[in-house]
Amino acid sequence: MIVKALIADDSPIMRKIVRANLEKANVKLIKESKNGEETMATLKQGEVNLLFLDLNMPEPNGWEILDKLHKGGKTSELSVIIISNEMGEGSKENLQKMGVVGFIPKPFNIQAFQEVAVPIVESIHNEEKKERLFDAQREEELITLFANETPLCSIEGGYLSFEFKESVVKIEKKELAKMAILEKKIL
Fold this sequence. Notes:
- This protein is α/β, with parallel strands linked by helices.
- The chain has helices spanning 12-24, 36-44, 62-71, 89-97, 110-148, 176-186, and strands at 4-8, 29-33, 50-54, 79-84, 100-105, 152-156, 159-163, 168-172.
- Strands 2-1-3-4-5 form a 5-stranded parallel β-sheet, with helices on both faces. Strands 6-7-8 form a 3-stranded antiparallel β-sheet, with no helix packed on it.
- The radius of gyration is 21 Å and the shape is elongated.
């Protein structure tokens, strides 16, 4: 998956510093928000997988945003890094229970950014590479199957099902565009 970051901080200077460091870490899709309202609106669009969150922002504040994300189960699909000067040990433990994966203290600390954010960015980049590799391997397997026999086809819920002599392949309807490309390679 592609790294899609959101920097949620009311300080334009902090947003600029985090953006510059994300760009150095090869992150191309970066959004910014200056308050909780903008942050929530951007998160609702579902186009973010890495959130840099300031705890002290105008309504709703970072704590409230994190609480909503945690209660909604969103912190499991979103890497949240807190940028704040309010991080006592008790706070860190509570934040980790809410799904926070890292902390960068204010004032901004480049070493903390490199130790916390860069490995998370690299992890997301690696997931994208694994997904592409899986898709390529799966495509090769399907080409081989379709080249050797004609399957029985059926629709089951949100899947298109191809039944071969020795296997069944289910493809989500939303992946049918990939099947059209695959069909051209087979024919």
